[in-house]
Every structure is written in structure tokens, then in C-alpha cells.
Amino acid sequence: MATWLYRIGEAAARRAWAVILIWALIIAGVAGAYTAFHGKLSNTFTMPGTQTQQLSDELAQRFPSANRGSGQIILTTGDGTALTEEQKQAFSAALSALPSEVPSVDAVTDPFTTTSKLAEAKTQLDEAHAKIDAAPSQIEDGKKQLNAATSQLEDGMKQIAENEKKLDDSQEQISAGRKQLASAQKQLDDAQAQLKDGYAQAETAGSPAAMIEQLNTQQAQLTEQQNALNQQRDTLTESQKQVDAGRAEIASKNEELAEGKKKLDEQRNQLQKTESELPAQREQLERQQKLYDFTSGYRMVSEDQSTAIATVSFKKKIYEVPSAELQKVMSDIESANLHGATVQFDANLSESALGGGSHTGEVAGMAIAFIVLMVMLGTLVAAGLPILMSLVGVVVGVLGTLSLSSVVEMSSTAYTLGLMLGLAVGIDYSLFILNRYRTNLLDGMPKVQAIALANGTSGNAVIFAASTVIIALVALNVTGIPFLGVMGNAAAFCVVVAALIAVTLTPAVLSLAGTKIMSKKLWASIDTPQKIAERRVQDAERTEKPNGWLRLVLARPLLTLVVGTLALLAVAAPMSQMRLGLPDASNYPSDSAAYKSYALVKDKFGEGMSAPLVAVAHTPANMSEEQAQQAQIDIASAVKERGGANVQAVVPGGMTDDRTLMIFQVIPAHSASSVETEELVHELRAVTVPVQGSEVSLGIAGQTSGNIDVSEVLAQKLPLYLGVVMGLSFLVLILVFRSIMVPLVASVGFLFSVLASFGAVVSIYQLGFMSSLFGVDHPGPVLSFLPTLLIGILFGLAMDYQMFLVTGMREAYVHGKDAATAIVSGYNHAVRVVVAAAIIMISVFGGFIFADSTMIRPMGFGLAFGVLVDAFIVRMTLTPAIMALLGDRAWWMPKWLDRLTPNMDVEGAALSEKMSEKIQHERESAATDSGNKLGEG
Questions:
Q1: How far apart are CA 689 and CA 678, in angstroms?
Q2: pLDDT tens for residues 899-918?
Q3: Over the stretch 291-311, which tens digit does the pLDDT of each residue have?
Q4: Around 60, how many Cα atoms within 13 Å sit in the side-chain half-sphere?
Q5: Which terminal residue of the chain has fewer beta carbons within 10 Å of its beta carbon, N or C?
Q6: How many Cα atoms occupy the beta-carbon half-sphere of 936 within 13 Å?
Q7: pLDDT, tens digit (0-9, with 9 covering 90-100), for 625-661
Q8: Helix, strand, or coil here: 675?
């Protein structure tokens, strides 16, 4: 590898412009790829296999509206006065225009319309209760009325019966009279016949006057009797008519009574039906009342009427909505004339719409790095070269990474991590090669040869150092956590680019830098062979003499070890209280839009309104509407009961058409990142409710529960990943140092560095110790994936410092120096560049401590503090102390293992020796030739 890199460095130095052109083309290529293919970044982290993700996938299929992005817009007067009707109408008008103005907006929930509907529902329920409560009394009154009508009907029937009896009696009398008339008529007819016979006899007798007169008298009597009979007959006929009319009237009344009876029967049946349905209606109303009561803690307009919350629902997840459309949502609302009212936007809208933000901290970090380089290297060109190389690296690395953001779900943290690492290692890797190049020049080497050898030696160390970082970062994929793997891959790519630039572009630029790479004073110190020789002697003497800090460490190694270890343990102690989570609006800076909206919502509605949970229940099939409603009540009641004071409201959110899946919006009483909300999620997931003979379990989804799931899975994976990295570091260091104790010391030292870094992060970002100094306004849980990232990144960086410091000690020991002298020689050989590299790392990482993103801030601090501890305490203090205590035992290795272990030659010592011999031979040949020429002369 060293020889191969030597040749690359030599070729780059001889063809510098060609190498620069290649990298310029690469930059143009990745810039074009970024322009063509970059996509939207996300700040939402998902975890396949967790309950939240499983439910989210199911809701996306069965209940799409419950699985889309949303954001809150808060309208307020700002002074606690009630919103006016004019302000409400203006806000509602602005909201109603959003779906037509912004393509991604699916719908808006107007707080005033919703509140009005809830009030209307309450009025309807109150009216229904009044009706239900009055129904028993009304039924009793109806029964009384029916009973009275029935009595009247029965009285009418009795009267009809009496009238019928009277008519029957009259009919009998008429019939009897008719019989008497018929008998009298017959007698009268018989008498008339006899009278007729009497007239016949009288005529036969000659019509005697006395006889005729007598017959006439009889005839007159018969006529009078006939008239009397006719008069009686007429009387009977009139009586019969009256009887018939009476019967017709009775028949009519019977029909009326029958119709009345029918109506009474119908009314009685209806009354009985109403009475029988009353319990069911009362139960239905009670169910509706209970469902309504669950919303009592859910308000969209504050109690003092000064603030209202509107919800904007999108057609896709929030991180898939273009930033321009989120900006338009906010600008459309802000530009509306709200008549003195103001609006604020929650984190989903305000943070998702943000661009890259300011980079003041990163610039400050780079400025400090430049100052350190100036102090160390002495010229602007030398100080600027590593920074230029790092900037080229991050341009290629970050743009290359973002080019894949349209096909790979990527968080903004991923590319920021790549930027952070790319800047830091890019400077350090180029610095290592630059420093070795300057050393080679001071040793009297020609420029091209000095560049090539620097690339073959320090470049080889750079490749190995980069490989350890890359392995640790790529190993994040073994956690099985996709977004963490993407972060690791993105950062690893940036490290790969930084290493390639260091061993290709750096040699090319060095060849063009000429004499400007060192100060005139340094050039003057090597302008003759004698000065070069004197410098070598001085360097050799200086490297074997302990100075400054090392002298203190080696004077009291045991005391140094004890004090250093206790100090690290004290710093690491708060780690025992570490609680993982993802930041929410409650953790944002006080002057951020996200925190301002959160604080307003917390004050007016309760902080849980910013962190709703989605509860999902899978219910039995074939339920009726009433059974489904009762199931909603039972489940919501169980949620309220189990959650207790941690639940502000439970709002039934609907169900699928087949009633087999129900969702509920649960409003916690505390913020998303609070311990109480985390406990609430676990409590609700333990809820089981009997529904139609089946035990229904409750699932919890939503962004809040998703963050909790991610944090818990990461906490479970952390020991495994730490074990893998520790084991890997031990094996790698055995290959490098061909020792058992040195890798063991290095691995344990790495563990102390990591634990101390964890403790410092917990102290500041969770417990709030000196939080104001670092711009932490609202401490909260530690970023859930920060410990895992710190382990991976600090492992690579710790191995860098270990390698650069201790490989020199090993080389000195192998070449015959005693253990104590080897420690001093190796330390002095590397300490200057390691200190500079560490300060640069700390400066670059520290520049991110005041970044806009609340996720990046603790990451920058953790890495900066981790480098500080690892470089200055573990590698430059404790390691020399332990090595001094161990003596020769530090380099012990079983013979069988020594035979199996390949010689890694990380710093290209063999190449360096070979080139030194070659240079020495060339110098001796040159001296001989010069002597011969002088002799001949």
C-alpha cells in the first residue's frame, strides 16, 4: 500500500494540473447530479418493525387520512383579549383558500367552524336529553288521554245499545199495530162484502128505502172505519221511517265508533312502541353523550377566546411536501389582513420549510482551525491548503450524498454529519501529509520525492485512519436501523472522499505551492547540507527528551493514571441518568418559531396539544352501528382510565366502513419528549378491552410514539454496537501494534472517552448543567441516535490519535530503544501534529454546537468533547502513563499470535527506510563524485 501511494503521490506531483482538472470535473459532475436528482430531506425518523411503523403502514392502506402530514397554525390576539368576529372571519377566509392555492394541501380544519359544530352538537344533545326526560311524563299523559277516550267510546257504545233496544221495541210495536190493522182491515173488508151483498138483496127486493138507508148508514160507518184504519196505517208507516232513520243513525255511529276505536288502538300501539323504544333511545343518547364528553378536554379555541388552532392536512407526509409549498402556506396566512391578530406556526410547518439556516458556528470553527494552522505552519498557503482540501471534499461528499436524496429517504442530519466529519478529517488528513512533506523537505529531500514519500508514509496512515472511521460508520448498518445506516453511509462517503483528496489532490497542490509551503526562516535553516545535518542531530536529541506535559506525566505515572481515571469517571457519572429521545418543539431555542408556537399552545391549551397520539384498535367484524359506538366508548373509557392524569382528552377519530378498525386521537397532558408521555405510551399499549366477546388490544402510532419507539430500539442496540466496535478496535490494534496490552489499553481508553462524552452531553443537554453557556434554553432527552453515532465516529478518531502517537513508540522500541525512551521518542515525534489535529477537530465540531438544528447541537458538542477527552487525556496523558508503568510488558505478544499476525506497517516505515537508504546512497555517490572532481582538479 505504501509503495502504491508513493507512486500516486509522485504522479500527482508531476501532473498536478491534470489531477486538479479531474477533481474539477468531479465537482462539476456531482453538482450536476445534485441539481438533477436531489430530493426533499426529512427530520422524521422511522423504524421498520416497531408498532408505530406497522400501524402507520396499515393506516396508509386502510385509513389514509390518518396517516398524512399535518401542521398547526395558531391565531392569537397576543394580549389575552378575545378574538373579534372580524378577525375570525378573516382567518377563516385565509384558511379556506389554502386547498386551492397550495397543491399539497388536502384540507384545513377551521377552529371556529369546528367549535360551532361542537356547540351545535351540544345543543342538540341537550334538546334530546330534554325530550327523553319529558317522554315518560308525555307517555303517561297519552295513556290518560287514551283511557279517557276509551271510556267515552265505551259510553257511546252503551248509548247505541240502549237506542237499538228502544228501536227494537218500537219495531215490535209497529209490527203488532200492523197485525192489528191487517185484522181490522180483514174484518172491514168482510163487512164491506156483506154490505155489498145487502145492496144486492135490496136491489132484488126493489130497493126499499128503509133497507137502502140502513145500508147507507152501514156504508158510512165502514168508510169511517176505513179512514181510521188508513190513518193508523200512515202513523205506522211514519213510525217505521223513524225506526229506519234511527237504525241508519246507529249504523253511522257504529262506524264512527269503530274508526275511533281503530285510531285509539293505533295510538295505543304507537304509545306502547314509544314506551318500549325509550330505553334504547336513552341508551343511544347516553352513548352519544359519552362520545361527546370525551372531547371535553379538546379545544381549538382557548377558554379566554384569545387564541385558536387551525390544522392544515396535507396529501402526503410532511417531509414529502416541498419546502416551497410549506412556505406558501405560511406566507399566504401571514399576508392576510387579520385586523391586528397574529399567527404562529408549529414545528411541522416552520422547521420543515426552513432552508439550510445560518452557518456562523461552522465558519467560526473553520476560522479557529485556520489560526491553529497558521501558528503551526507559519504561512498563509500552508495554513489554507488543508482547509481548501476539506472544502473540496465536503463539496463532493455532501453534493454526492444529496444527489441520492430523491431515491433514498434521508434526514437533514445525515448530510450535516457528513459535512461535519468531512471538514474535520479533511483538514486533518491533508495536514498529516503536509506536515510529513515539510519534514521531508527539512531533511533535504527534493520536492517531488518529498511529496511522494509523504504520500507513501503519512498517506498510508491516512488511508488506515480513514478505513477505521469508515468501518465504524458503515458498521452502523448492522444495527438494522435504516436511517442510522443512511447516516453512517453518508458520513463514510464523505470520509472516503476526504481520504482520496488527501492522497491525490493534496500532493498535486503541494507541488504547485513551491517555497510558500514553509516560511523563509525554515528554508534558511536547510539551505546547506551542514545545516540539514545539524538539524537532524537537534531533532534526534529533542525527540528523546521528555518536555512539558509528557515530563509531568512520566514523573508521576501512577498518580496521573489515578487522577485522570477518577476525573473521567466523574465526568461520565451523569450518564447513568441518560434518557434517550428525539427533540420536539419544547426543546427548541426560546427565540425559534417552533418554540414560540409550542409555548403559546402550552399556555392556552396544554402542552399535549402539540404532541397528539394516535390510538388504533382492531375490533371484531360484523358489529352493528350501536355495537361499534359502544366499542368506541369502552375503548375511549379504558384509555382515559388507564392514562389517568396523563391524558387530557380522548377524541374518537372514526372507523373503517367494516367497523373493524377504529382510531382515537389521544391528547397527552405533557410534551412529546416528557417522561410522562413516554410512560403513557407504554400504559396505553397494555390496554385490553372486551368487545363483543373478544379482547381488543390497543396500538399507539403517530410521530410522538414513533420517536419513543426509535429511542427505545436505539437504546437496546447501543450495548451491542459498543461491543462490536470495542472488539473491532481490539483486533485492529493487535494488527497495528503487534501487542496485547497496547490494544487493550487503547480500547479501554476509547471506552472511557465515550463514557465521558456521554456524561458531558447528559449534564448539559438533559440535566441543564451550564446549559445557558451552550445555548440550551430547554434541556430534554439526549438525541436518541447520538450515543451510537458518537461511538462510531469517536472510535475512528480515537484510533487515529492512538496510531499517530503509539506507532512512533513501537517503531522506536522495535529499532532498539528501551521502553521509556520509545515512549518519549514516539510521543515527541507525533505530538505536535496530533495536538494541532485535535484542536482543529474540536474547533470544527465545536462550530456546530450553536447550529440552528437542535439535533446537530449536541452532536457537535459530543464529538468536540469526545475528541478533547480522547486526544488530550486518554492518548496524551493516560496512555503514556500506562505505557510507562507497563514498560517492556506493553509490547508483549504470544509467539504463536505474532507468527499469525501480518505486518501492517501503517506509517510506511519500510518504505521510509528504503527511501532513506536510497537518498543516503545518492548523497554518498554525489559526495564521491564531487571529491573525485576536486581531486582531478
A1: 21
A2: 777 766 555 555 655 665 56
A3: 888 777 788 899 899 999 999
A4: 12
A5: C
A6: 6
A7: 888 888 989 999 999 888 888 988 888 888 888 889 9
A8: helix
